[in-house]
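Per reviewer request, we include the raw input and output of the structure prediction for the construct analysed in the revised manuscript.
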Amino acid sequence: MIMQSQESLEMLVMVSRLLSSKLDISELLTTIMRLASRVVGAERASLYLLDEKAQELYFDVALGLPEDVQKMRFKLGEGVAGTCAKEGKSTIINDVAADARHSKKADSKSGFVTKSLLTCPMIIKGRAIGVVQAINKTEGEFDETDKNNFEAFASQAAIAIENSRLFSSVKEEKRKMEIVFKRVKEGAILTDVDGEIIILNDAARTYLEYEKYKFSNVKSAFPDFTVQPGLDAALASGDVAFNFELFREKPKRFYLSGTMIKLFTEDKDGNSSVEGRLWILTDVTVQRLEERMARNFLSLISHKFKTPLASINGYSQILRDEAQAKNLPDLVKKSSETIFSQGQKLNVLVESLLDFVTVDSLEPASLDCLEFNAGQFLTELAEGIRGGLKDPGSVLIKVASPEPVTLKADRKLISAAIRSLVNNAIRFNPAKEKLVVLSVQARDNAIMLSVGDNGPGIPGEELDNIFQKFYQVEDSFTGQIEGWGLGLALVKKVAELHGGKATARSQLQKGSAFTMILPR
């Protein structure tokens, strides 16, 4: 008895080693079939897997069975195997002919005579994934020792099958990911936390001349490019996604828009940590060159307008004053007044267009950045804006609890952006009593400059568009407001020049809040 137990243990150890060495599912199932009969000394063995959708058992591998038998399926609860899978319990039948549970379908088609059966479920996490059977004990009858050994074998087989399936699933997902990764039009680079490159697709290889430089870390992937903001800023960023720009002057102008996305993993306690980064590179050369041409065109047109506008406004003012002084006919008075007022409006539009073109053409290196107290700056700015209002009684501009926050930035540009936000808050607000609130906060590694109002608010579907150039919320919602739709685009540009971003929150009939989030 001790000798038999020793042999059984050695057999199970050998079986465990064999099964754990197989990851290919077909090879594994064939190995299980060959070992199953040896474990308990049976003539042959059968292995059924469970089709969970159909709730049926089927032969995945059937050694020595005719083709029509291999195609047979058994419902859960049908036959000995079906009952075993349904109940999750092992069964010993040493006289099959006397047991009503035995289905004779397989025997009748194969010509094989089943005399005795040892049937065990293969269970993973409390659910049966299949059944393994030992058929016809070669010497004597199946007993409890055989059952115990076979259950141990079935347990090992179940684990091996589940591992093989997981491996195949991961392998297939990896294959699909690589296909998508390589075929996407954008350049894509997958790195670990430290920037070591795991995989990069063909587009990225082409954009960055990989065959020439053979870089292994993303830090050395852009030797010919100017990166804005710098790559160190992207790697140190606390944001899940970080946007940056790449520019190369030679052999021809080449622009790439980049996004770095953090990839997270969770431990067993649900705590997440960064395990890698995905870098997406999009060729935006055509768009950037078109923007540059448009900027040059707008600058040219704006400058060309200034000289004739100066003449129109100057002479129209003389005509208006002469018409009033000499009491000329009403038609002359009205015409000269209209020409002068419309000329003044056009002059404001041209000046605002020139301001935007000037800011839009700036680069971060050209900023005149100095340190100043942001709270005091907002207070002085609010007082200056109040002093220039035509109807100061209808507008309340206040600074909410200014914090003593030190901001390093281009003061003139920040002032232009805040003024633009305040002007919008007044112009787009039809309320009789307009409220504008300026505030500054320091959070983590960012400083937030905000302008809030009690205006009509902005529809949610518009919030993603309002920072685009020349975009305005439709007239039927805001009322006809003269302008280019460049105010918020200027705010966005100023924020980006400082390495930050502009955001907006709004609630209909309650107001809006626009924020410039700048790095500390």
